[in-house]
Specification:
Keywords: ATP-binding, CBS domain, DNA-binding, Nucleotide-binding, Transcription, Transcription regulation. The protein is an alpha/beta fold.
Length: 596
């Protein structure tokens, strides 16, 4: 284990010590020692340490008969000195001064004296004082927090227990610390969280006859669970209702012109930034930029690999901005045939072409008036259509196919792609002028492999969602399985994780998802030592993604059959937006069978 940098000789040694030339006469060296108030100095030549000149040796020389003060220091210096290594820990040093000499060059690299050691102890004292003050603050906050807080170690033994928790359970702090959580807290699930490693957030819990809302959070270190924290958040239904009422008052104050029906519809369909799961630095930075973008009307370009959740970000921006009163219109540019794209985006007039609706039809841009239009997979848009999109963005007007009357529009544009638009512009596959129109506020969504610490939070949320969809009890997941998920690269990102979780949920008969329920293709990736190896080739990844797409297609088909083709109901059961479901139905060519 590495020693802290603060405690080593290298950190504190004097790298530019005063040295003496071997040809310097003794009387000059004596003056230098006296002026510097030193008892010894190193003798060097071209940076190489030759020896040490000590005041004690000069005194012995001067006491001898005859004047010896004009002798050179090389004749008086000694080769006996304390040699230190740069990695030597300061607490281990027993004798000073010490000299640090390079093993390769023999040059003097530094000197450690009582002066440097005194500076070290001074800073160490200040550091300890700050740590003590910080610990007092932590203890004060912990014990005075309104919420009940407790922390257990990996064995479920209580290590910390605050006053609030003590009041809830009726057990003094001193009596609780050192006890197993199950002996102190009724019906505790902290041991379950220790076993699974999956957080349980906002869970209903009855403690001493009191209804509470609790969080149970595992504590990870070096890919190992070392404990768990329990937090009592709300006290009964009354407190929860009070919070909801305050939130409603906040909405009324900010949106006093809203009709009650509009508010209800907004709350049912809105996606907030809080719904984008994860608190890793990578996803937190993306959410930070997105929140700032939501407060403006600037065009947003969302980039990221397939399956990272680009549409979720687009919706969060829409519902957090001024456009939330309007509709969020999602268009998958890759799913619309080139021949139909113009009429889909701009609409068409009565009798515009054979087979058209007799009354004409509004396009996606018209539907997004006073709202947001989200052009997903913008990198797949044909060059001809790119020119027309650019004109709409410049003029904020649209003409239906077959018409000549410009229709003024007010909309916000959000686009997304998993392609490198900069390279496409360079290759002539994407218009440069349109690119700069779109590239106002870029937001890059990180892939799941770059934020694996978010996996437990995502799993906990998805398992609760699946329990509602399938009207079953919430299932737990084995800690060993969770560890393996950390080691997998997730080429399909969040979408792949969601598909696998649903498969695990459905195929597991009991309420605990074990390692044996792992999909076969992940079993293939397991090495003998029990770790997940990376997918071997791009071809293999494509095969896996194709398999996942087939399963998704079958799931959508079964759900639509279950609800007799009602797409709104199917979207709710699948946990996706209506727009996303339409895109998937179009992608999998299910349109002919389900038209309601």
């Amino acid at each position: 284990m590495m020693k802290p940098e603060l405690d080593t000789v290298e950190k504190w040694m004097n790298t530019k010590p005063t040295t003496i030339d071997p040809l310097m006469e003794v009387h000059e060296a004596l003056k230098l020692l006296r002026n510097l108030n030193e008892t010894e100095l190193p003798v060097t030549q071209d940076g190489h340490l030759l020896g040490i000149l000590r005041l004690q040796d000069i005194i012995v020389l001067m006491n001898e008969k005859g004047d010896k003060s004009h002798q050179q220091t090389a004749n008086v210096m000694t080769n006996s000195f304390v040699r230190l290594n740069k990695d030597t820990v300061l607490q281990d040093i027993r004798e000073l001064p010490g000299y640090i000499v390079s093993d390769e060059s023999g040059k003097l690299e530094g000197v450690l004296t009582e002066k440097e050691l005194l500076l070290y102890h001074k800073e160490l004292t200040q550091k300890v004082k700050k740590t003590e003050d910080l610990m007092k603050w932590y203890e004060l906050i912990f014990n005075t927090a309104y919420e009940g807080l407790t922390v257990v170690d990996e064995n479920g033994v209580i290590q910390l227990f605050n006053e609030a928790y003590s009041r809830y359970v009726g057990v003094p702090k001193d009596a609780a610390v050192g006890q197993h959580a199950s002996n102190v807290i009724d019906n505790t699930r902290l041991p379950v969280v220790l076993k699974t490693g999956v957080p349980e957030r906002s869970q209903a819990h009855r403690l001493q006859g009191q209804d509470l809302v609790v969080h149970r959070i595992p504590i990870w270190k070096d890919n190992k669970i070392i404990g768990a924290a329990g937090i009592l958040v709300y006290e009964g239904l009354t407190e929860i209702q009070q919070v909801i009422q305050r939130m409603e008052q906040l909405h009324k104050r900010d949106e006093h012109n809203y009709q009650l029906k509009q508010v209800s519809n907004f709350l049912d369909s809105a996606i907030n930034f809080e719904d984008i799961l994860g608190d890793s630095p990578a996803i937190s930075n993306a959410k930070k930029i997105a929140r700032k973008a939501a407060s403006s009307k600037a065009t947003v370009l969302i980039t990221g690999e397939s399956g990272v959740g680009k549409e979720q970000f687009a919706k969060a921006i829409h519902y957090a901005g001024d456009t939330k009163a309007g509709d969020f219109i999602s268009v998958n540019c890759a799913a619309i045939p080139e021949g139909l794209m113009e009429s889909e985006l701009f609409g068409y007039t009565k009798g515009a072409f054979t087979g058209a609706d007799r009354e004409g039809k509004a396009g996606k841009f018209e539907l997004a008036h006073n709202g947001t239009i989200f052009l997903d997979e913008i990198g797949d848009m044909p060059l001809r259509m790119q020119a027309k999109i650019l004109r709409v963005l410049q003029e904020k007007k649209v003409e239906r196919v077959g018409g000549n009357q410009p229709i003024p529009l007010n909309f916000r544009l959000i686009t997304a792609t998993n392609k490198n638009l900069t390279q496409m512009v360079h290759d002539g596959k994407f218009r440069e002028d349109l690119y700069y129109r779109l590239y106002v506020i870029p937001i890059d969504i990180p892939p799941l492999r770059e934020r694996k610490n978010d996996i437990p939070i995502i799993i906990a949320h998805k398992l609760q969602q699946l329990a509602k969809v399938y009207q079953a009890n919430v299932k737990t997941i084995d800690q060993q399985l969770l560890k393996l998920m950390y080691k997998y690269d997730w080429p399909g990102n969040i979408r792949e994780l969601m598909n696998i979780l649903e498969r695990l949920f459905v195929l597991t008969d009991g309420e605990h998802i074990s390692f044996n329920a792992l999909p076969e293709f992940l079993h293939i990736e397991l090495q003998k030592e029990g770790t997940l190896a990376p997918v071997q080739s791009l071809k293999k990844r494509r095969e896996l993604l194709a398999e996942a797409s087939k399963e998704e297609q079958e799931l959508i088909k079964q759900t639509l059959e279950q609800v007799k083709g009602n797409k709104s109901q199917a979207a709710k059961l699948l946990g996706v937006s209506r727009a996303t479901l339409y895109n998937k139905i179009s992608r999998y060519a299910l349109d002919k069978n389900y038209n309601t």
